[in-house]
Amino acid sequence: MRVFEAFLSCGSVCTDTRSVTPGSVFFALKGASFNGNSFALQALEAGAAFAVVDEHVGDDERLITVDDVLSALQQCAADYRRYLNIPTVGLTGSNGKTTTKELFLAVLKTKYKVHATKGNFNNHIGVPLTILSAPKETEILIVEMGANHQKEIGQLASIAQPTLGYITNYGKAHLEGFGGVEGIIKGKSELYDYIAQTSKGIALVNVDDAIQLKKSAACRSTTFGKTNAQFTFTLNEQDEFAGIQFSTTTESFRIHSNLSGSFNCTNLAAAVALGLYFDVPAPAIVQALNDYVPAMNRVEWRKTGSNRVLLDAYNANPTSMSLSIENFAKWHQDGWLVLGDMFELGEESAVEHQGIVELVQRTDMEERCILVGKHFGSTTWQGLLFATTDDLATYWKENGAPKDAVILLKGSRGIALELLLPLL
Q1: In this structure, are residues 53 and 64 in contact, taking their beta carbons and an 8 Å threshold?
Q2: Contact 226/233 with Cβ under 8 angstroms?
Q3: Would you identify the CATH topology of the domain 3-68?
Q4: What CA–CA distance (Å, rounded) separates 142 from 159?
Q5: CA 91, CA 146: separation in Å to the nearest integer?
Q6: SS3 of 335, please?
Q7: 86-291 has which CATH code?
Q8: Which of 145, 186, 259, 396 supports an S-S bond with 242, CB 3.0-4.6 Å?
Q9: Topology classification of domain 300-423
Q10: Domain(s) of CATH 3.40.1190.10: residues in the chain
Q11: Beta strands at 202-206 and 164-167: parallel, antiparallel or unpaired
Q12: In this structure, are strands 63-65 and 88-92 parallel, antiparallel, or unpaired?
């Protein structure tokens, strides 16, 4: 039996014997420290209907042998995407991918049955699993695509086959893998390249981003921006939370979101533009965006026992770090900054971390800033500095943490700044 035929007969897949669901297809993936083939028979015993393997593990007729299990998983997902034959939104970018995906989902689900990437299942394994977990009654699919090197977005696009593509921005993320900023632009733009090659594809383009305009020139597009776009908006800067205003032919609308930072205004505008493209009524769009509450340690306000904390500890790169600091300093000059190292910057790491130090100095928040990590330890910083989050935790336990304060926790996932919350 072919892998795709097996999937259609089952309707679900799994890659871990600890989460086998009865009647599913088990894909025996390999990793640096494991070989799924070794667990294929165990998966069948646990209730899987079939197991896809690329090594001989037995003669059970429920075993489907292929040349490479990962390739088979990806091909099965591509086949299912064609089988569904529904509008598919593909999005990538250096910053704001997951937040934008969640905003897209919030808007579209007010009218359609939508299936979207969960968490950060956005790589060469996560994208296929996202597609294969979509119910057959799905009306619109939203697929987030992450990458840390060139040609990865192109591969993911060939699997997801987006009918609409959106790039949030080109920022300084994964500099090491992409080989610098130009490599990032080239790599992320592979989504527009795919859209341009498909007669049915269209790009959602932010006209305020000159690079996006250039890279999407070969695509059919629907546009948004502050001027000269199909959908135009203005900023609504009444406080620290992102807000925009826009008008339709009959009414004017105002969005005041729960997202901190004016840099999220573009994400809101993209979500409005997408909703209007898919004929979602404007009032429903506004309600969905006003009601959306960030989670997963991404620009998330937390009220602790003694403080108000802006937790943004899921990821960090020079672009997002700078925007977060600038926005926080604008509204909370008497607050505290707790900043952790930024990873995957390669040869640019020293320069970029020094740049953040200098930005903090320009905002006059040096006396209320704490840096965490060995990369920040290599800068000229003269203030409070700790090698690890545990070291800072120990310091606070002995000397006391800030109280009755507003605090930004911003750093890469590996620094795990969220572990400081119980002390705040």
Answers
A1: yes
A2: yes
A3: 3.40.1390
A4: 13
A5: 9
A6: coil
A7: 3.40.1190.10
A8: 259
A9: Protein-Tyrosine Phosphatase; Chain A (3.90.190)
A10: 86-291
A11: parallel
A12: unpaired
